[in-house]
Amino acid sequence: MLKSIYVKRRGRSVAVLVAAVVGLVGTLPGVAQAYAASAPGTINTAGTALNVRSGPGTGYDSWRTVADGAAVTLLCQTTGETVTGTYGTTNLWDLLSNGGMVSDAYVHTGSDGQIVNDCSYVGAEPSSKTNPRSTNGAIDWAFQRYRSTSYENLCLAFTAQAYGWGGSGWYSAEVGGDWIASHGYLKTTGIPPRGALVWYHNSAGTGHVAISLGEGKVIGTSVSGGVGVAGYLDHVSYRGWSVPYYPAAW
C-alpha cells in the first residue's frame, strides 16, 4: 500500500509518498550501512566565519576558520559535542579535507544524517604504558602549536609531548621506528587511522614521525618549516604506522 510520511531535509519537512511493504521497511538487522568515502558540502552560518577545530567539540582548538558559503569536502564523520546551528541540533562532526573538524549543524550536505564513512581511530596502546593524553587531546595539543617553528628537528619529542609525556625516551625517530618495527607494532598497509604515529626514514638517518589526523592527513613538524598538516605520503620515505606507544617515555 502507499502511505504519506515526512522526510526531514535540512530544516524543512516535505510530504512524500513511499511504498510501504510489510516486513521490508527500515534497515535490515545485522547489515552495516554503507557510506561514501568523501562528499561535498557547503558552509552555512548566515554570515559569520565558522571555526575549524582540532577535534569534535567546541572545546578543541580553533586553528583556522572557513567562510560562510564556502565549498568543503567531507572525508569522514564522527560523534562529539552536541551543537545547535543552522540545520538544527546534532552531535555529528565532519572531518574536512584540510584535516580539521566542523559541526555538521553548519554544513549543507542534502541530508540531516551521516553521508560519509565513520572516522577511523587508532587502537589503544599497551596497558603497561598508557599515554597521559587521549587521541583527540594529543591532536588538540599539536594544533595549539600550528605553524610553530620551535619543534624543528624535534619531531619525536613533539609527538611524545602531544601525548602527554616529557620525552619519548628514544634518541631519534629512526631508533623509535626501529623499535616499533622489531616489536611487531608497525603496520604497512591501510591508511593510518586518527591518532596513529606515522613513521618515516630520512636522508639524515634520524627518521621522522608525525600524528595521523585520519583519512590520509598528518600533523607534525617540518611542514613548510613549522608545525603543519600534510598528506601522509608527502614524505617520500614512508615506513608505516603504529599505535601511539612510547615504552621508554618519561
Per DSSP, the total helix count is 3
Shape: elongated
Strand percentage: 35-45%
- Give helix % range: 10-25%
CATH hierarchy class name of the largest domain: Alpha Beta
Write the CATH homologous superfamily of the largest domain: endopeptidase domain like (from Nostoc punctiforme)
What is the CA-atom radius of gyration, in angstroms?
21 Å
CATH fold-level assignment of the largest domain: endopeptidase fold (from Nostoc punctiforme)
How many domains, in number, for the residues?
Answer: 2
Proper CATH architecture of the largest domain = Alpha-Beta Complex
Helix/strand structural class: mainly beta
Uncertain runs are 1-31
Report how far apart the termini are. 67 Å
Q: How are helices and strands ordered from N to C?
A: EEEEEEEEEHHHEEEEE
Keywords: Signal
Protein name: CHAP domain-containing protein
